[in-house]
Fold this protein.
Amino acid sequence: MADTDQNPNASAQFAFTAEQHELRTTVRSFCAEHSDEATVRQLMEARPAFDQKAWIRLGSELGVLGLGVPEELDGSGGGLVDAAIVVEELGAALFCGPVFGTLALSIPALLAAPDTPVRTQVLGPLVAGTRTAAFAVPERAGRFAADAVTVQATGSADAWTLSGTVERVVDADAADDLLVAAAGPDGVALFVVDAAETGVQQTVLSTMDLTRPQATVRFVDAPARLLAGPEQANQICQRALQVAAVLLAAEQVGGAQHLLDLSVAYAKDRLQFGRPIGSFQAVKHRIADMLVDQEHARSAAYYGAWALQDGSDDPALAASIAQATCSAAFTRIATDTVQVHGGIGFTWEHQTHLYFKRAFTDAALLGSPEDHRDRIAAFVLDDITGDYEVPVATG
């Protein structure tokens, strides 16, 4: 619960509103229509791996890509909690689309950027769903890593070109715009590059999770527009990564809930020795532990979204708590779901393996649970600020 005496902008109690429940129902219906298992399997083999018409509907018809974006910027208003509800439902359906690159990273970065014509030109189409984006910015355990920038920016004023390579960019193959951190004459700045430019080359990587493609992006004198200079780029990237950590946590909650529901249904229906396997102590205790993990994760994810939205806690701490909790819970629940389903849980034909791969991929995207637990310990024990960096292991 937030202390409203210390923070008058914070709510005294967290509870979903009637409008948020309706939002959840709407997105769940959308996923039932556009993200059933057969569609997911078809799209994950396609290039790009998403349905562009469905994505436009998310933006232009449902308006969910603009949640948290002020109405004066052509957004839908609302806040980060609303966006988390949407992402949770998309995660439950294993929705194929540039959710991570566009909704979780690029739009928050643009919202944190200075109010310039470049921001307006890029943000509007992303909110409408007519264009997509990816975040080609290096991070280390969910923190912006300026020392790992491998792209060089040349030019000045409105004439910039970028050269260099960025590895493992999520959703790059589906992106129309790329937000790129590049080292310029005055330091690391943030640029926007049209992915269709001749100076942009992409190599799609072979990944474990086919529903979340990644690519290596190479820039060769690619024309770029300056989004934010060195004095602002660090803060923008940090904010985007914190928001992404919380929204990724919400997605993990959605995936874990779907697996828990599958496990409960299977334990009720699967008979052994004439009895449902859910009546056996080993199975029922495993499922009970899954439920505890899931509820803990849900609380952590939505507290993180609430904290970042209302400013009721340190954003870096809230994001790390969400990631440490939700990554661990999703991977455990995915592993236990395979066990509950027995032999069928290991087969390609069953959907469990799709979520299993998403769970372990998500846990590696913005730092492992161990990375974030180390950061939380440092916050709590050393009373540090959000500038803390997780030590990098060597040797």
Summary: The chain has a mean pLDDT of 92. The chain is about 50% helix and 15% strand. The two ends are 43 Å apart (CA to CA). The domain at 235-382 is CATH 1.20.140.10 (Butyryl-CoA Dehydrogenase, subunit A; domain 3).
